[in-house]
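Weekly modeling sync, notes
Attendees: S.R. (lead), two postdocs, one rotation student

Agenda item 3: backlog of single-chain predictions. S.R. asked that every request posted to the team notebook include the full sequence so nobody has to chase files. The rotation student volunteered to paste the first one in as an example of the format we agreed on. Action items at the bottom.

Example entry:
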Amino acid sequence: MNNSDKEKFLSIVVPVYNSFLYINQCVDSFLNQDIPTDDYEIIIIDDGSDNGSEDILDEIAQNHSNIFVYHKENKGVSSARNMGISLSCGKYVWFVDADDFIAPNILGSLKKITENQNSDRVKLESFSFHNELSLEEVKCRLENGELKSNVPYKEVMATRTLYKREYLIKNNIMFLEGVHYGEDGVFNYQTLIHNPKTTQSGVLAYFYRVHDASATNAPKEKRVKKSLEGSKYIFDVLVDDYNKKICVIQTKRMLLYWMYAVIGHYSVLSYDYFCENFIWEHKLEHIPLRDFELRRLYRVLQELSKTHNYKKLKKTAESIAKNEQRKKAQKAVKKKILGYIKHPKRLLKIIFKK
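Predicted structure, as returned to the notebook:
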């Protein structure tokens, strides 16, 4: 923890890996604020950069007393964020990605909200843009009331929430290391199962950049493979919590989300890759008889793992997507698969027929 006689309002944690293109704008947005610099800190975790980003970060830290840079071996964004949590000393923690930035003069408003509400989580509004958007333009458009949130709040995004640091530490909430896709969703799930006091701020605070190098803009097959690789760790957590009856409603919700991801999203993978990498080794216990959706979806994954007969399901998903507009394709695929789940005997006979 950084030395300080006074508890800071906020610790901003920024994982960086070879992000020299946008890191200056990101840091500038932290400095263009309306509260004293000794009331918040910026913790930058250099996750093994090797393209000169590390030198830029050191130079930035030398010129600002509330910016702290730490260099570590490359182990991924989850490891970097966990290190940031352990080093932070703010009452609240805010995770910001290095190619994004925050709104100018926004910390004063957020501080007032946290003081009035004393919440464990504060939800923030966000704005998505492509490639370039200057801080000067943002400031001008905000003052004129021209900017409104254009991204619905999603529990799976850790960057759109302020978290009370004490709440994270007390409940031992950390990011799953070794998971490279979907780690935010599990982190937020873990914050929810302990019944946090949550405030919807309504404040447009986070600016999310979409560009060619964005993780979410990577080829779909590449993203899905990463998701598949991390799903075992995610299911370990969810199944264990469900069997222990920890916050059953929320746990069930996340289980369903990830099971649908396996069935629906992985239709983009080759049959051989899926067979080689997907093995369902988990056992859900004490599923209520009335819980048809979870029971049937669980049966689907068991059958997939046993037979690996994914070809027909993949073909069905692809044929539906071709006949639908792109924006409706995913919804159509999910609807079709839901139809099979409601009729498990038909699913086993038609989809998994050997």
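Discussion: group reviewed the output briefly. Strands lie at 8-16, 40-47, 67-72, 90-95, 101-102, 121-130, 161-164, 198-210.
Action items: rotation student to repeat for the remaining queue; S.R. to check formatting next week.
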